[in-house]
Amino acid sequence: RTGGKGANSAAAAANSAPCELIANLGASSASGNPLLLADLAASGGGVRTSRCRVLDNVPTGTAYIMLYHDRDNCIVLLGGANQQWPTAAEVTEQLREPMTKSAVVMLQREVPEFVNVAAASLAHKLGKPVFMDVGGTNAPLDRLLLPHIDLISPNEAELSDISGVDTTGDEG
Prior knowledge:
- The chain is of the alpha/beta class.
- The chain has helices spanning 5-13, 33-41, 88-100, 113-125, 156-163; strands at 19-20, 24-26, 47-48, 53-55, 62-67, 73-78, 105-107, 130-133, 151-153.
- Strands 7-8-9 form a 3-stranded parallel beta sheet, covered by helices on one side. The chain has a two-stranded parallel ribbon with strand order 1-3.
- Helix 3 packs across helix 4.
- 29% of the residues are buried.
């Protein structure tokens, strides 16, 4: 996949049900956007991307994964366009119509936290389950977000980060 956490999740979800990705792409990295959009359209039943915004003078977010000799890794995230969102009220208004038609809402953390709080709050009010992929940052989850989340999906390192418990030992 051409990726991004949200794009890869949408592509995977499209293998099971109709799916829509709502994200920001950067016009300054337009050479990569057609590949990403084509890859999403070809995924499963196809991922709808018509509500993705293309922002001028900013690159699409990018992650670089460095693999060390001991098989550990480090991820450097450049947020790019997905860090550029309007106010919480505008996010809520932008998401209201697509959420009313959704079965579930999946969130990831490569957007500002207020975007996830606004989206999760709206989904909860609409009776839509909220699935949270906690990757993208080691920061604690916003306490305003927690009451609106139905399912949290961490990998092993993320579980250690959000729980404060070492998950790599026998006791983890």
